[in-house]
Design brief:
The chain is an alpha/beta fold and 361 residues long. The protein has a domain at 14-198 and 250-280: Rossmann fold (3-Layer(aba) Sandwich). It has 12 helices and 14 strands. It has helices at 23-34, 51-60, 76-84, 101-106, 108-129, 163-179, 217-226, 253-269, 287-298, 322-328, 336-349, 356-360, and strands at 14-18, 38-43, 66-70, 91-94, 133-139, 188-194, 196-198, 232-235, 247-248, 250-252, 274-279, 285-286, 304-307, 316-317. The strands form 4 sheets. The chain has a 7-stranded parallel beta sheet, sandwiched between helices.
């Protein structure tokens, strides 16, 4: 992995990936490199580690086609200089952003500054460099407490209970306003609304490595399984669901990463426009379903304690994925057992996440 790509290095195309050292970003970088793209990652390493990119290079054998620049998107001048100096770039996949729902309710200004402000600076840098293709990492949280199944036509904005989700909604609105402007009319914009990413690369070499206590269910479950946490707290068992616990649509990170390549292919083959897609499986699993599946993968019991519901949680959330199938040619292929098997491969080989790499040196 180098700090910059050689102008002589030219694969299928050159993709700029913000937040590429993070969980979903690193898995997408693997698939981009395997597909023949050159990749430049921009990341400020606040919630990620450069070790993930080292492993991306090792997994693909294409470290020479992977470049990394440490930059904060909010530093508009530095960002613009970095983007301007890149070899000809075809598209940007924009993952960078703070993503902890609970934290966002305590630090809303920081979330708006980072997520919205960083995106504005990125769009400005892209405009200056003549890059007009972007895939934006959004979230199903923009739907608020909408009834499932959720389609792309389901109203957004109302019922969002946290600054994280609202920051994603605001960015979508910004992209929509820009796409409707004369200047934005020749941009291709794909907005991907994720449901609940889980799992890891099947090698166990890269995976989700949250800073501090995990904010999402499955990283917490896997840390309990590996002995880092004493037990899982289940928030409510009195929902109108089969076992009383909340039901969500979980998608393997490998399928999710593949969805970004499908979006890039769509951008390359279609006229400029803004398009929105749900990326999920269309299947809901309860909290206890996920615990049982992880117990099976890990071969051990996972202790949990039931507590009261969390404010803002809803009983059931799952996607309608017909549009992604029809327009992207994409469907999720990996199931619950695959998600938990690969998550356990990562967690068991890296009990402390990428911190374990220090012990290997």
């Amino acid at each position: 992995m180098s700090s910059a790509l050689s102008t002589a290095s030219r694969g299928k195309g050159h993709v700029l990936v913000t937040g590429g050292a993070g969980y979903i970003g690193s898995h997408t970088c693997v698939q981009l490199l395997d597909a023949g793209y050159d990749v430049t990652v921009l990341d400020n390493l606040v919630n990620s580690k450069v070790e993930s990119l080292k492993r991306v290079g090792e997994l693909t054998g294409k470290a020479d086609r992977l470049a990394f620049r440490e930059v904060d998107l909010r530093d508009a001048a530095a960002l613009k200089a970095v983007v301007a100096a890149l070899p000809a770039c075809d598209a940007c996949i924009h993952f960078a952003g703070l993503k902890a729902v609970g934290e966002s309710t305590k630090l809303p200004l920081e979330y708006y500054e980072n997520n919205v402000g960083g995106t504005l600076a990125l769009l400005s840098a892209m405009r200056a460099a003549g890059i007009k293709n972007i895939v934006f990492s959004s979230s199903a949280t923009v739907y608020g407490a909408a009834e499932s199944p959720i389609t792309e036509a389901t109203p957004t904005g109302a019922g969002i209970t946290n600054a994280y989700g609202r920051s994603k909604y605001v960015i979508e609105e910004i992209l929509g306003d820009f796409a409707r402007s004369p200047e934005g009319a020749d941009w291709s914009i794909a907005v991907l609304r994720y449901f609940n990413p889980v799992g890891a690369h099947p090698s166990g070499r890269i995976g989700e490595d949250p800073s501090g206590p995990p904010n999402n269910l499955m990283p917490y479950v896997s840390q309990v399984a590996v002995g880092r946490r004493p037990h899982l707290s289940v928030f409510g068992d009195d929902y109108p669901t089969p076992d009383g616990t909340g039901v969500r649509d979980y998608i393997h990170v490998q399928d999710l990463a593949r969805g970004h390549l499908s979006a890039l292919a769509m951008i390359e083959a279609s006229d400029p426009a803004l398009r929105v897609f749900n990326l999920g499986t269309g299947v809901g699993y309860s909290v206890l379903d996920m615990v049982k599946a992880m117990e099976k993968a890990a071969g051990k019991p996972i202790p949990y304690e039931v507590g009261p519901r969390r404010p803002g949680d809803v009983a059931t959330v799952y996607a309608d994925t017909a549009k992604a199938k029809d327009e992207l040619g994409w469907v999720a292929e990996l199931g619950l057992d695959d998600m938990c098997r690969d998550l356990w491969a990562w967690q068991s080989a890296n009990p402390m996440g990428y911190e374990d790499a220090k012990a290997e040196l």
